[in-house]
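INFO batch 0412 | record 1 of 1 | parsing
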Amino acid sequence: MDSGLPNSKGAGQPVQTQRERAYLAARFVLKVMELPYVVGYHWFQYSDQPAEGRFDGENSNFGLVNIRDEPWDLLTRVFARLNRWVEKVHVREAGAEELLREVSEIVEKG
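INFO prediction complete | emitting tokens
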């Protein structure tokens, strides 16, 4: 993966690029926000885990920032866009597919 982390232990499916990570995160959030019984979501971890592993051995690229506290630019831009619209998607004032297309354009441009 382009994060430089092993990603050998931890939950979720590892992806190869930050572009793929940002797109799949957006897709997940939008699918969840379409569900009437969901009241919100949260991101698992603010920062990436250390390459040598944390206390339980997890060593993955889960963060909004890397271990030097530098934002993963594409992911944070995608979340900034999403977070302005998730409530409208949830109450059906905006379409998830339209927003996913906008996010896809952000991801494609990098």
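INFO post-check: The chain has one domain: 18-109.
INFO record closed
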